[in-house]
Amino acid sequence: MPLRRQQILYAIIILPVLLFTPGISYASISMTLEQYVNEILLNNHSLRAGIKNVEAGYYSVLAAVGYQRPSTSAILSGSYATKQTSGNTSQENVTVGSLGLRLTQRIDISGSYKLDERQNILGYEVSRANFDSTINTMIAAAEETWWGAVLARENMKLQKEILLQRSENHRVTVEKYNQELVPKLDIVRSEAQVVAAETLVKNAETTYLNLLAELSLLAGGLDVEPVDEELHVPEFDVALNFEDALEFRPDVRAAKLTLERARIIKKLTAKGLSPTLDFGFQFTPWSDPETYATPNDMQAGASLTLTLPITDGNTTKYRVMNTDRLIQAAESSLEAIREQTRRDITVAMNNWRNASAAEQDKQRQVERAEEELRITELMYAEGMGAQIDLINAQTAYQAVRTEYLDAVRNMYVALVAMRKAIGDYSPDENGTWQEARLRYGKGKPILGEAGLKKLRVTRSTKSRNGRKK
User: Fold this and answer.
1) Inter-helix orientation angle 387-421/184-218, to 10°
2) What stretches of 20-90 adopt beta strand conformation (E)?
């Protein structure tokens, strides 16, 4: 059966791409998360290389099963001969030529063609599932980096606010010193607090710029930054189901396909000593001269060749043993990925609960620290409080606000880890995107060879039933 009738090769489904006006130079482009993910799948060179490798795998399948189809060839021959004349010793030189057409076909009497075709197709499907796993990992890393940049920018704003606050406190301290209300030590302390705040601002800016560099790398070198909008505390929006995760995770799918392929290869290998039957047909439309050329002019011939292997030096035996071990390895790999999936979901859920509880605790601490700082600043301005109390209140306020931002970031990171664990960032085997499709608008086919040649087809009922077995 031709490969295209197997109905299991599907096209690479990729996110809808975001196009920008060519010829315009952008120092830094502000994007939403949806636009950024689209840009990654448009410009990330690793993904583009992966797409082409998958397409190459498709053509490799077509080439690998080519021997199953009939082959034809044209045969043009020429020779120089000496012709003996009857009844005397004279000789005559003769040039002989012929043109023939040959058709050959190996007849599959052992049932190996179907197995070989199936294992080649499964090899393609494994590469496709591995590519989907790459997408799942890359988008998860991109979203985690995205939220890291968003929270780093918030932290940068916070540190700048603290710097302004301490600068104002230092100004008040200087005025008090000029009025001989505080000692010189208070000016030294307040100035040190300003210098420390400036250092924290520089560190926050560096962290933010480094994360922007990571975002640019994933987007194929495009300088981007998250759109400046109100920061929200994330909500848990992932449907937890371990069995669904095993169904949708692309690395689990790749492991299942690898195991299925290994079993088919074992069956195919076991046919190493199977008999073969070759059919051949040849027709010679022209030969000259007719009495010397072989085959003769307008001669046709057919042949059947049956080959019965007797021994191959135990090659088949040891190849079967080899494939048997590969099956055992594939089974163990599948179980390892199952255990890893369960572990990933459990850890992500624990991290979410911890970060969610920390966010609520830090929120209350921020409110108390803010109120304490406000009262301490008021008392210090009125000359009723010590500077050391003000410094302590400022330090506590800065720490708890930074911890609050870390808790919010950890919530986003836990959600990303959960979505990655259930394969939320990748399509399934039919090219259908999962929950992330609702957030990113996924689903349009990519342009190029895979899209233009319409490789995507629906698995037949027979194929689905065969896989379940």
Assistant:
1) 10
2) 29-31, 71-84
Q: Could you give the percent of the chain with pLDDT greater than 90?
A: 30
276: which strand partners?
307
Check: CB of residue 279 under 8 Å from CB of residue 303: yes
Residue found under tokens 């605790």: 361
Q: Which domain holds residue 261?
A: 3-69+111-274+313-468
What's the token pair of residue 457? 């087809």
Q: Would you say the C-alpha torsion 320, 324, 330, 331 has a positive or negative sign?
A: positive
List pLDDT tens digits, range 321-347: 999 999 999 999 999 999 999 999 999
Q: What is the largest distance, in Å, between two alpha-carbon atoms of the chain?
A: 147
pTM, rounded to two decimals: 0.76
Cβ neighbours, 10 Å, residue 25: 5
How far apart, in whole angstroms, are the C-alpha atoms of residue 110 and residue 271?
Answer: 7
Residue pair 119/270 in contact (Cβ under 8 Å)? The answer is no
User: What per-residue confidence (pLDDT) applies to 429?
Assistant: 65
DSSP lists the bridge partners of residue 278 as 106, 305
Backbone dihedral angles phi then psi of residue 276, each to the nearest 5 degrees: -125, 150
Q: What digits encode the pLDDT tens for the residues 196-235? A: 989 999 999 999 999 999 999 999 999 999 998 877 888 8
| Residue 87 and residue 63 share a domain | no
164/101 same-domain check: no
Strand partners, 282: 102, 301
CB-based contacts of 271, cutoff 8 Å, min separation 6: 110, 111, 112, 115
Same domain for 149 and 197: yes
- Cβ neighbours of residue 99 under 8 Å, at least 6 residues apart? 74, 75, 76, 284, 285, 286, 287
How long a stretch of residues is the chain?
469
For residue 229, CA distances in Å to 32, 33, 150, 154, 286 come to 9, 11, 9, 11, 82
- pLDDT, tens digit (0-9, with 9 covering 90-100), for 389-409: 878 888 888 888 889 889 989
